[in-house]
Design goal:
Number of strands: 10
Radius of gyration: 18 Å
Keywords: Heme, Iron, Isomerase, Metal-binding
Structural class: mainly beta
CATH class: Mainly Beta
GO molecular function: heme binding; metal ion binding; peroxynitrite isomerase activity
Number of domains: 1
Cofactor: heme b
Pathway: Nitrogen metabolism
Shape: globular
Catalytic activity: peroxynitrite = nitrate
Strand order of the largest sheet: 1-2-3-4-5-6-7-8-9-10
Length: 202
């Protein structure tokens, strides 16, 4: 399945362009064994001309047949190539970026490739319950691997100390897996949290 790159996409989002669109499908909580609960998820990756993708994932618990039972959660965030921030970049807050993008050509983006032939990326994701994650990782073709650098929790948030996520494009479908460490001790290791198989719907 060919990947279409939007004509208005800023150059540094081209490595992430295969994510853009609406995705929907079913998944399983935990390790995905016979007793694991089912869920339905709708994911969107959008862009607005700035050098990041906006991410939103809404999930619902379902029965075995896929009928929605109740809302599960919503998460939202931003995905971008990891690079030094320059004077031409926007922020903090409402400070506008220069009209001309910091990276203006494919050659300038290619210069960011890492020693493994991919691109370093950063992803920030916010959750209900006062939890925010900052991930660093790599995108290499249609594959992404992320590991938390920081998990920020509010004063009444549940214990959650670390996570990894992997994403892959397989036959035009988006597959992902999420492993987490809870109980306040990342040293105890990660456990399977959820996984899903999503089809592109627009």
């Amino acid at each position: 399945m060919p990947i279409e790159i939007p004509t208005d996409l800023t150059p540094e989002l081209v490595p992430l362009s295969w994510l853009i669109g609406e995705w929907e499908g079913r998944g399983r909580l935990g390790s995905g064994d016979e007793d694991s609960e089912h869920f339905l998820q709708h994911v969107s990756f959008t862009h607005n001309g700035l050098p990041y993708l906006q991410y939103r994932a809404e999930s619902w618990l379902t029965d075995d047949d896929g009928t929605r039972l109740r809302p599960l959660t919503v998460e939202t965030g931003f995905w971008a190539l990891e690079r030094k921030q320059l004077d031409a970049d926007g922020g903090p807050g409402l400070i506008p970026a220069d009209i001309v993008p910091v990276l203006k050509s494919a050659d300038e983006v290619e210069a960011l490739r890492n020693s493994e032939g991919g691109f370093d990326i950063s992803v920030s994701i916010a959750h209900p319950g006062g939890i925010s994650e900052l991930y660093y990782g790599q995108i290499k073709g249609p594959q992404i691997r992320l590991t938390t650098d920081m998990v920020m929790r509010g004063s009444h948030s549940k214990d959650y100390s670390a996570a990894t996520r992997i994403f892959g494009l397989v036959d035009g479908n988006l597959l992902w897996r999420w492993d987490v460490a809870t109980g306040g001790d990342a040293g105890k290791g990660l456990e399977a949290h959820a996984s899903a198989f999503l089809k592109k719907v627009s």
